[in-house]
Amino acid sequence: MRRSITCAIVFGCVLAANPAAAHPHVWVTMRSELIYGPDGAATGIRHAWTFDDLFSSYATQGIKQKKKGTFSREELAPLAQVNVSSLKEYGYFTRANADGKRAAFNEPIDYWLDYGQGALTLHFTLPFKAPVKARNLSVDIYDPTWFVDFGFVDKNPVALVGAPPQCKFTVQRPTGSTTTLGLAGEDFFNSLTSSSTWAAQFANKVSVQCP
Questions:
Q1: Fewest CB within 10 angstroms: 9, 12, 49, 69, which?
Q2: What confidence tier does 198 reach under pLDDT thresholds 50, 70, 90?
Q3: Which residues of 178-211 are buried (b: 16+ CB within 10 A; e: fewer)?
Q4: pTM of the predicted model over 0.70
Q5: How far apart are CA 13 and CA 79, in angstroms?
Q6: Residue 109 contacts by C-beta under 8 Å, 6 or more apart in sequence?
Q7: Which of 136, 167, 160 is nearest to 31 (CA)?
């Protein structure tokens, strides 16, 4: 039950056909851009999340298409709206800290879905509530319930857009081990919520240092 509800909440559309005993259930490959204004302050984060083939197949069931085998941005617009609305409860799976203090986001803008090679990609921008000018800006991307597994693409996973030339960044991929997850039953995963911290070990981290 939780698996079906969570999937509906998180992305608004997918009910898995058969129960599964392992986590995660959805896989996302992503690229992210940190956007900066002319004054050198970070103004937001732009994400592009590509979902696995199985999820994409379920998500597009029933959507009318003018051209067989593909979907236009307009045809996917209602699904994109459901996606970004459903992600709010989970903080859009994105957490930022500026010089050790939490940096809050406004709701997403410039969001849309596209479809290619059998996969959906969700594009959206998370603006900071206030521009962030910090020596150390860190961003963590992960699902606290580990229903969704995030991973950066291998090549050019992150970019700084408009940042001062002295700013540098590093990317840290998840450090958690999955070797002992078989010992964790479904009840354990059912107990995880949007405020849980256990899955932070599977976070993708971006750290930006500016003078």
A1: 69
A2: low
A3: eeeeeeeeeeebeebeeeeeebbebbbbbebebe
A4: yes
A5: 8
A6: 124, 125, 127
A7: 160
Q: What is the pLDDT of residues 89-143, one digit of tens each?
A: 889 999 999 999 999 999 999 999 999 999 999 999 999 999 999 999 999 999 8
| Close Cβ partners of 181 (under 8 Å, ≥ 6 residues apart) | 22, 23
CA distance readout (Å), 92 to 182, 197, 205: 27, 15, 15
Q: Which amino acid makes up residue 173?
A: R
Amino acid in the structure at residue 118? G
Average pLDDT over residues 157-185: 81
- All domains in the chain, ordered by first residue: 2-209 (2.70.170)
Phi, psi of 204 (to 5 degrees): -95, 130
Average confidence (pLDDT) over 167-175: 93
Query: For residue 142, which of 187, 92, 67 has the smallest C-alpha distance?
Result: 92
- 185 — pLDDT class (breaks 50, 70, 90): low
